[in-house]
Structures are given as C-alpha cells and as structure tokens.
Design a protein that fits this description.
371 residues, TIM Barrel, 2 domains, 8-stranded parallel β-barrel, 42% helix, globular
Length: 371
Amino acid sequence: MRQGARTDIGPPPPFITSEPRLGFGAWAVGGRSWGATGDAAERESTIRLAFERGITFFDTAPTYGEGESERLLGRALRAHRERVAIATKVGPRDDPRPSLEASLRRLATDYVDLIQLHEALERWEWSLEQLLKLQEQGKALAIGLCNATHLQIARATELAPLVSYQGPYNVFDRDVEQRELPLTRERGLAFLAYRPLASGLLAGSHARPPEFPEDDHRRKLYWFKGSEFERRRLVIERLRPLAEGLDTTLPGLALGWLLSRPGVTVVLAGARSREQVDENLAAPRHLAPATVAAIDEIVADVFRPVVATEQARRQAATWGERERFIVDRLDGRTAYEAVAAEWTDRGGKPMIAAQIKVFVDQLAERGLVRG
C-alpha cells in the first residue's frame, strides 16, 4: 500500500458475499451498440424486474449508452437505493473527479458502492490514486479495477485498498484462469465476471454468423465470424442436451457454470427485456462437479491446440517476436491461454488467447499447422 493510503475505509462492500451471486450488467440495457435501441420504458422496466426478482448488484459505466444506462438505473433504483449496490467506472483517459461526479448526477445518488477504473492504460496508477481520494471523500465506498493484467492488479493492491477486479469470463474465454483468478483469491479480492454469455452468443440463437447493424459493437467481435464462430457453435450444440437434462436454458447452463467456478464473486449477466431477466434467473446456483467436468470436456475437445509444422517453424525465424513466441509453443498440448499468460508475465504489451486463435487460423489457411 502506498504511504499514507488508508486500508480501513468503511465496512466490507455489500456485494462481497461467501457465495457467488448473479448481478446485472447494464451495458446492453443502455440502448446503444446492441442493435435496435428499443423502448426506454421497457428497458427501465427490465431493471425494476431484476430488482424485484432479487438482483441487488448493478454494474454500469458512463460509456454505456452514452450515459443512458446510468440514467435508467438512477430512475429505476432511486427508491431502493439503500437496498442495492451500484458500481460504475471511470474511463482510462478521463479525469476521475468530473467523471464520477457526472455519473452520480445521472445515477441520482450521492455515492456509488464501487468505483472502478475501466481499463489500466497510460497513467493508470495516477487514476487509481485519484479514485482513492474520491473514496476518502465519501463519493465511493470501494475501489475496483477492470481489464488489467495480473501484474497491474498486484501493483494496484500496493497503491489503494482495492476490493475487486472485473474481467471477461465464460465457458469459451478463460484467460483469467491462468493468473487473474488465482491472484484475486490470494489477495482477497472479489472477482466480477463480465461477458458471461459471450455477448449473447451463448443464448444459442445463431445457427450461422449473424449480420449486426453498423453501430453494433458485436460486428467487431471475432467469435461472430469465421472459424471461431463455427467452433463455438459446435460447442453450443453439444451443450444443449446438458441444459435440457437439467431443465434449464442454455444461458442458464452457462451462468450456472460460472457460478460454480472457484473465486467468482458476481456474474454480471446483461438483459434488455423482462424475458431475458427470467432466462438469466433460471441459472442453477450450483452445478454438480460432474456437470462442470462435462462442460469443460466438450470445450476442450473442440478447442484442441494445434501443432506447428516444421515449415512454420522455419518461416517464423523471420517473423516478429510475438509470432515466434507463439509458434515455438504450438505443440498440441499447451493451451493458448497458458501461452498468452507466459508472454504477459514478461511485462510490456499483454497477450490474450483470442489473439493466438486468430493467428493460428491464419496459419491454418496456409497449411502451417496440423490438428
């Protein structure tokens, strides 16, 4: 902890509990970047239903719907403020004080339960110390970090009384299992899992690559196209019988898997309609170990690491350092998440498994890897 930092600010945050819980991720409900905007009254009704059905943790950000997500939460939850925990964020290039004060106005509250740095980019350490000052002034009860490496998380715990880390996690995207989840357990931090349904793909409604509107952020996600879409679609089809056998939905199975993972504190499931709230709440609170193992086996069977050919290894000698690093480790056994974590351990620009998958697909097109 930096000199002078307080470690005893307030009681434990209300979202840190002994059992993992379902929370409300409020990006999609903000109305922009997720296809048709939809009726604001319906989206506000969705938030109210989530609260009525027992969800008490709501996560948002100023960028979600350009502030509309925060405004909706403010209107829907104002009468229940003391019974809910609200988390928002500060952008990596924003001045923390005016950013949080604007969020408080939109949320119609004097404080947030958790203020998070949205990304750990340039001058992130300075931003974190500014969040500590805002916490000391009562504008936030706790501080969290999002979208950072394990090295940054460890450093952050030395700068401020960090209570949480938020990162992407679902049955497909498991980078956090390598370093971040073990570290948060070791440091006693809450882990908030976002994108638990892979931005809607795990709803199981896409039999072929979808065509999203121009302003929909999912147009840029690599798993909605090409070889990655086909791999994920195959996994989804093999998961359907498991969901049916447990009398739950496919989203329910995916959320139940996350709620059963060690170290997960809150699963941030988004919803834009009352029907989606009901689907999310159908998730089993705990899956049997045999069911978790069956899900993991299906994913591992479809996502088997490839082996680099000798030709690939010869060509890689003239490629960049990152490419050579990956090719050297394409041995048919090492998970791409482990390769990415090993690279990130070195410091500098991090790597994630998604980048390796895209690169490997490019190698496959040139006949430079074998399954």
